[in-house]
Amino acid sequence: MRWWCGLFALLLLWIGYALSPYVALYRLSEAVRTGDARAVADRVNFRTLRLSISRQAVAAGLDAVAARRDLSPRERQMLTDAVTGLTEPVVTALLMPETLVELLRGNWPKRLDGERPEGEPPEPEPARTGGLTGRTLPQLLALAGTAEMRGFRTVIFGYPPDAPEENRFRLRLRLRGWTWRVTELELPAELRERISRRLLRLQQRTETSRVR
Question: Which of 95, 85, 81 is nearest to 51 (CA)?
Fold first, then answer.
């Protein structure tokens, strides 16, 4: 009889483990929906998330340099070397809890645009890709359908689940101790391009200030 009890306890533990990332995703989506920046921050590993966003921002910065056809080889190399320094303030702004909430909602954080010089045209608004939403059972089931398990401690969700692959966020959760935390966030193509344009403006302003 005891071994039946032990088997039943193991079964319950397994069911609890199997459901735990979906429960964590639901709680995170609720914190995003209500704008609870503190609750979102409690569910994020900022060290690994910074590495993830920095990698994408640097790639966007290099794309911005590659798009400049007016640069000499020397100027191109100088800007390539400066990409990390230019991306750092963008990454820092993206990782502020309030800004991260907006990003997880699928919005471009307005504070990243800063003050626009007189005469500079406004940045075109990115298409709304849809944010992290798992409030209802159908929404949760749709999110669950995108889950990719990577071993026993990592799961990746893509959202919005009905969007094309290039327009999806890819959210990686990793289990540490008893808590699932966000460790990586892969941005959709539209937002990576927005970062690239932002960095291009920073590069141009840096060049202007050097000339003066």
Answer: 95
Question: What's the chain's Rg over C-alpha atoms?
Answer: 21
Please check whether residue 56 is in contact with residue 186, taking contact to mean a CB–CB distance below 8 angstroms. yes
Half-sphere exposure of 25 toward its Cβ, with a 13 Å CA cutoff? Answer: 32
Residue 178: Cβ within 10 Å count: 6
Q: What is the pLDDT of residues 115-135, one digit of tens each?
A: 454 445 555 555 555 678 767
Beta-carbon contacts of 194 under 8 Å, excluding residues fewer than 6 positions away, are 108, 123, 126
**Contacts of 23-27 spanning 24+ positions with Cβ under 8 A:** 24/173, 24/179, 24/180, 25/134, 25/140, 25/143, 25/157, 25/171, 25/173, 25/180, 26/134, 26/140
Per-residue tokens: 84: 């990390």
DSSP 8-class letter at 44: B
pLDDT tens per residue across span 14-30: 666 677 888 888 889 88
